[in-house]
Amino acid sequence: MFGAHAITTPEPDHTSVDPSPRSGRWAVTGLVLVLVAAGWFGLQMFGGDESSLASAGCTSATTTTVSMIVAPALADLVDEAVNSLADNGQCIELDVTTATVADVAAAQDEVGEGEEDTLPDLWVPDSPAWQSVLNEADHTGRTLVPALASTPVALASGVSEQAPATWLEVLSSPRLVVSDPLASGASALTMLAPFSEAAEGIGSVSVAQNAIVPVAQAFGAEVAAGQVVNDLTIDTITAGDDHLIPVTEHDLLIARRGNDALRWVVPATGAAVLNFPLVQPQAPSGGISVGSGSLDVAGRTGDRIAAWFTSEEGLAALAGDQLRGADGAPIADAEVVGE
Which of 52, 58, 152, 255 has the highest CB neighbour number within 10 Å of its CB? Predict the structure, then answer.
């Protein structure tokens, strides 16, 4: 619940994003990967109880509900951000759900013809594949903030050895263990990193595409056959195991608390960076809603949440959760696996 004074801070510069299929599902030259989703995570309601509404002088008729889906890694932080917002009498209720991009895609796939989509007013995704989810729903994504938080992406292994020269080499290696890119931002970036290398003159786009196809085909075949995918994880990998598992710094640091066999392996071309953007999905139909025009309640709410992440309190909370700020600066006063 937010309460009674207008916000006078300047409007931030928002960027409209036209979703790109290349960043999303593993569809390469006509190959469509069968997706696996784990279902919705638990629903969390912040500031939605009747006593809070009544104390602010709000009723169901005067209250605007803003739905928000948050990546699991940022769920607790968004909870803190929402709880820190001052009451300003705007009678806004946040309905916050914790879910991965894979969960959102699965829910959207179940929407029947003529039914309303399940996309939220605000979204903090954990994989760049969010763009393809919006694209397939005939939506665009207005990026309110490019990154609320960030975390480097490299590889976890059970051995310490010379790192691969490039991400393309990683993608072509039989040692690579990948996950659904909709469910794992680290795996998604592993797929995309060779394209970034190509843009820097290392390899080519065609070579990167050719490397993706067999990886996607193998993954899709396992899913279609109903096999258990990725039995090997950063929690189960043992010392001496030379497999390479895409992983974020955030997940590696947490996993190391229970598995000291983990080693951080970074290709010579550098680590990738996973950003957690704040996105406002928008349908092409137009009209006035909580996310459009002069009554952009969702956008203003998102701005206020984003401001918390740049505050001293927010940055300290990020570091406490082993996440970096939007600028990617190393975590202060904490173990850091690399620049």
Answer: 152
User: Do 109 and 81 contact (CB within 8 A), yes or no?
Assistant: no
Q: How far apart are CA 41 and CA 264, in angstroms?
A: 29
Instruction: Tell me what pLDDT residue 78 has.
Output: 95
Helix (H) or strand (E) holding 124: strand 122-124
pLDDT of residue 88: 55
Residue 235 has pLDDT above 80, yes or no: yes
pLDDT tens across 49-58, in order? Answer: 333 444 456 7
Q: E strand or H helix at 132, and its extent?
A: helix 130-136
Task: Give the burial string for 306-332 (b: 16+ CB within 10 Å, else e).
Answer: bbbbeeeebbebbbebbbbbbeeeebe
* Mean pLDDT, rounded, for 201-207: 86
pLDDT tens digits, 161-192: 778 999 999 998 989 988 888 889 999 999 99
- Write down the residue that tokens 């759900």 correspond to: 97
Give the residue among 247, 249, 246, 245 at the shortest CA–CA distance from 325.
Answer: 249
Spatial CB neighbours of 239, under 8 Å, sequence gap ≥ 6: 158, 159, 261
Q: What's residue 14's pLDDT?
A: 42
Query: Could you report how far apart the first and last alpha carbons of the chain are, in Å?
Result: 39
CA angle 151, 79, 1 (to 5 degrees): 140
Single-letter residue type at 35 = L
**Nearest Cα residue to 179 out of 261, 271, 251, 107:** 251
On whether the CB atoms of residues 230 and 127 are closer than 8 A, the answer is no
pLDDT for the residue 170? 93
> How far, in Å, are 85, 274, 305 from residue 301 at the CA level?
10, 24, 6
124-133: pLDDT as tens digits = 999 999 998 9
What are the φ and ψ backbone dihedral angles of 123, each rounded to 5 degrees?
-145, 130
DSSP string, 95-117: EEEE--HHHHHHHHHTPPTTSPP
**CB contact at 8 A, 216 and 33:** yes
